[in-house]
Amino acid sequence: MNDQEALRSSPVHHPLLETALESVVRGAKALRERFQTKVRIESKGIANFVTQADLESELAIVNTIRDRHPDHAIISEESHSDRADSKELWIIDPLDGTSNFMHSIPHFAISVAYYQEGRPELGIVYNPIRDDLYLAVRGQGAWHNGAQQRVDEADRIDASMILCGFYYDRGRMMQATLDTIGDFFRNNIHGIRRFGAAALDLCNVGCGQYGLFFEYKLHPWDYAAGQLFLNEAGGRATDCNGQSLPLHQSSSICATNGHLHRRALEIIERHWTRLCAGYPSKSCFCKHIQ
Question: What range does the domain containing 41 cover?
Answer without folding.
Answer: 3-148
